Every structure is written in structure tokens, then in C-alpha cells.
């Protein structure tokens, strides 16, 4: 149950002073990816022609969804993280109570529903399906060979959330949906890389765990590179100099995820590289002025 407290989990440390709760709650939300995804989707909304109010609705809906996913992930994985002695997890160190994180996850999810539907029924449904896919990953799909699918679905539907909220409710072009799905799949592999050994010890048998560290690096690089190629070549017209230069940059970043480059096995650098690549991709899309419809 999400309401069970960390003190009730055998082997967990005592709760830290209450003054640290806010920081612990923030860290348990996975702020880096949550903030990055929110910023990038909001940028897409602004480029699509949404007014300030529409962009704010998009930002709040995406942020609520991301927070719910991050908090639910840490709450659901608490026992596993305790067993793995994950000192980087606020729930494991007792910085924040499990009941607090569980309640925050439920509240964020509840807020996500009206915030998503405020952009329209079709747009809101697209976003909520993506959030549901992310929750399904946390609730068990992560341990199966289809672990990549929730990421691909959730990221692939983000352009639809933006486009379907525009007048006429147009569906985004197929190339944009495909690029989002490829980017999501690549992000899944780079996000899992640091935890492959502990996941295997805990019985998690997702696709990256089954493939192993180096094969997962290669798959991540291919998916991320494919996403960039689709974003550069997918829009009508011939790519300009900025497009080719951007593809060179994203290609280099994708290659960096495939090479250990002396990084520690638990390094989060590949995932941070993925976030940087996504930012470059969205920037290229905006510079080309490509329509989302």
C-alpha cells in the first residue's frame, strides 16, 4: 500500500528531521528528467502557436504527470531500493516518509487529470494515456521484455498532446510521433544502465537487463540517433546547414552513450547525455519552424 511508512519497512533508517522533508520530496520526484520533459514539451507548445494560457496549461499538466511518475517510482521501488542500499534515494535514507511520497504521487496524478483535459478531450486523453503507460512501467512492466514500450508510448504521445489541443484538433505528423517514441525508447535504456546489476539481483528482467550493459548502450545509441535523423529528415524540404550541424551534434551525443569512456558503471552521464540530445533535437525542430500538424 502506498500509505505504508518507511519505518515499517524492515531495515530502513529512522526518519530525518522534518526540515529535510521538502528537499527529500523534491529529490524523490526525479527533478532532472521531470523538469527537462516539462520544459521541452512547453517549448513545443509555444512553437505550435498556443497562447500563454495554453502553454501554461501544457506545462502544468506535463509537470503534474512527471511528478506523479517520479514519486510513484520511488515509492513502489522502496523495498527494492532498501535491499540494494540505495543511499541516493530519500526514502531509503529516511529523509522523507513513504506515506508522504505516496500521497504526493496520488495528488499529482489527480491534478494531472483536469489539467490535461483543460487542453481538450482528445489532447487530454492522449496525455493521460502516456501517463498511464509510465505508471504501468512503475507497477511492473519494467520487469518484462516489454519494458521499453511504456517509454516509447509516453514520449510518442507528447507531440499529440500539444497538437490535439490546437484548433481543429489535428494529429501530429507521423515522423514526429516516431521521433518521440524512439527518443523515449533510448531514454529507457540510458536510464536503466546504472542499475542493471541491482535490478538483476532483484529479479527485474526488462529488455536492458536481458541484453546486458554494453548491448543496451548500443541499442540506446541507435534509438537516439534514429530519433535525430527522423527529426532532421522527416519535415518537408531539404535540411539546412543548421539541421546537418545539429545532426552531427546529436550523433556525437548518441555515440557517447554507446561508449563507457571511463565512466563508473553507476554513472548517470548517459541519461544526462540523453536529456541534452533531446534538448538539441527540440531546438532543431523549432529553428526549422516545422509544423506540429
Give the helix/strand layout.
Layout: H1 21-28, H2 31-47, H3 52-76, H4 78-83, H5 90-93, H6 98-117, H7 121-138, H8 148-163, H9 174-192, H10 196-201, H11 207-211, H12 213-233, H13 241-258, H14 269-288
Helix pairs in contact: 2-3, 2-14, 3-6, 3-7, 6-7, 7-8, 8-9, 9-12, 9-14, 12-13, 12-14, 13-14
Distance between the termini: 42 Å
Q: What percent of residues adopt helix (DSSP H or I)?
A: 55-70%
Number of helical runs? 14
The biggest sheet amounts to: none
Number of domains: 2
Write down the overall mean pLDDT. 88
Task: Report the structural category.
Answer: mainly alpha
Radius of gyration: 19 Å
Question: How would you spell out the order of helices and strands?
Answer: HHHHHHHHHHHHHH
Low-confidence stretches: 1-13
What characteristic shape results from the CA principal axes?
globular
Compute the number of strand runs.
0
Classify the beta-strand content into a percent band. Answer: under 5%
Amino acid at each position: 500500500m502506498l500509505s505504508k511508512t518507511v519505518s515499517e519497512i524492515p531495515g530502513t533508517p529512522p526518519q530525518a528531521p522534518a526540515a529535510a522533508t521538502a528537499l527529500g520530496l523534491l529529490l524523490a520526484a526525479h527533478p532532472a528528467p521531470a523538469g527537462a520533459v516539462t520544459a521541452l514539451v512547453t517549448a513545443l507548445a509555444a512553437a505550435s502557436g498556443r497562447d500563454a494560457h495554453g502553454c501554461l496549461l501544457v506545462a502544468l499538466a506535463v509537470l503534474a504527470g512527471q511528478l506523479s511518475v517520479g514519486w510513484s517510482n520511488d515509492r513502489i521501488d522502496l523495498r527494492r531500493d532498501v535491499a540494494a542500499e540505495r543511499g541516493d534515494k530519500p526514502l531509503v535514507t529516511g529523509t522523507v516518509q513513504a506515506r508522504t511520497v505516496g500521497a504526493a504521487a496520488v495528488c499529482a496524478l489527480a491534478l494531472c487529470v483536469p489539467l490535461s483535459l483543460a487542453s481538450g478531450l482528445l489532447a487530454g486523453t492522449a496525455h493521460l494515456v502516456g501517463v498511464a503507460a509510465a505508471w504501468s512501467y512503475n507497477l511492473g512492466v519494467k520487469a518484462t521484455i516489454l519494458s521499453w514500450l511504456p517509454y516509447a508510448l509516453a514520449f510518442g504521445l507528447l507531440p499529440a498532446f500539444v497538437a490535439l489541443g490546437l484548433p481543429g484538433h489535428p494529429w501530429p505528423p507521423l515522423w514526429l510521433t516516431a521521433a518521440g517514441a524512439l527518443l523515449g525508447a533510448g531514454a529507457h535504456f540510458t536510464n536503466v544502465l546504472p542499475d542493471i546489476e541491482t535490478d538483476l539481483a532483484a529479479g527485474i528482467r526488462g529488455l536492458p537487463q536481458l541484453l546486458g550493459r554494453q548491448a543496451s548502450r548500443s541499442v540506446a545509441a541507435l534509438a537516439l540517433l534514429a530519433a535525430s535523423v527522423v527529426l532532421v529528415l522527416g519535415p518537408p524540404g531539404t535540411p539546412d546547414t543548421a539541421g546537418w550541424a545539429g545532426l552531427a551534434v546529436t550523433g556525437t551525443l548518441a555515440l557517447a552513450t554507446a561508449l563507457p569512456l571511463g565512466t563508473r558503471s553507476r554513472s548517470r552521464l548517459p541519461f544526462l547525455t540523453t536529456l541534452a540530445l533531446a534538448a538539441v533535437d527540440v531546438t532543431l525542430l523549432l529553428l526549422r519552424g516545422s509544423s506540429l500538424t
